[in-house]
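Recall that a protein's primary structure is simply its ordered list of amino acids. Everything else, from secondary elements to tertiary packing, is in principle encoded there. The following example makes that idea concrete.
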Amino acid sequence: MALALRLWRSLPLGRSAAPGLRFPTVAAGSREQCVLWRLRGAEVMGNPGTFKRSLLFSALSYLGFETYQVISQAAVVHAAAKVFRVEEILEQADYLYGSGETEKLYQLLSQYKESEDAELLWRLARASRDIAQLSGTSEEEKKLLVYEALEYAKRALEKNESSFAAHKWYAICISDVGDYEGIRAKIANAYKIKEHFEKAIELNPKDATAIHLMGIWCYTFAEMPWYQRRIAEMLFATPPSSTYEEALGYFHRAEQVDPNFYSKNLLLLGKTYLKLHNKKLAAFWLTKAKDYAAHTEEDKQIQTEAAQLLTGFSDKN
């Protein structure tokens, strides 16, 4: 309404509408370079119709500018509200993840699967994978969720290649998909997986999880069975390989960055020391894994495995 009122007041209302307006005159020269407009008090000289059309055009231009400003301001407000909304969702998601509310987290984030936000997408990839890991998830559902997680992680990486978390979860999801595509695919993807873990660590050297995952990569290739090594040799001139010492280095580094951050890191420290025939340190880390406060189903599974390995120690002694 205020905009229409300003437009109405700017339009010429007969001859009395022009007082105060001043127009530049054209410099003298030939007859064609005559003065187009002159104002004498309230009297408009020249062609009144042309003047009115010109003034109307100016008013409409002003209206267009005003409309543009209103739309622009509305767009800014909408964008700000959208950013606030995303931040609110991320805050809720992180709370649910920290509380071990796997199913609620997946339900929350699934509402935004069409999002273009990398932070939402990698969290959705993680949530999909976590649901797949639950014991109550059927094999058919698990497979669907694993591929779904890979798609979300891939989109997150496309949206933001500087996101260490997107690199990390993309690598994790590629590895998971390998379980359904055979040994050849799993080994063929090994270098890609390592590349993205290394990039995640480069982008955030304080992310204990990415460091831990590099340890798992090393541990996996250190204990690779002979027949898988043969396949790797057929696929690559220099197949991926590693040692238990390298794996141990990453597991310890992860623990230094964030002590006691993950039950599986404690378990793998114990298992790696077992591989290196150091039973004393193996027992130390396995005990820590067994006594770890369980927040998730995975934590409970790790507690059970650690306890079984420790019982194996006792039986042999």
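The longest strand covers residues 39-40. Residues 78-181 form a domain with the Serine Threonine Protein Phosphatase 5, Tetratricopeptide repeat fold (CATH 1.25.40.10).
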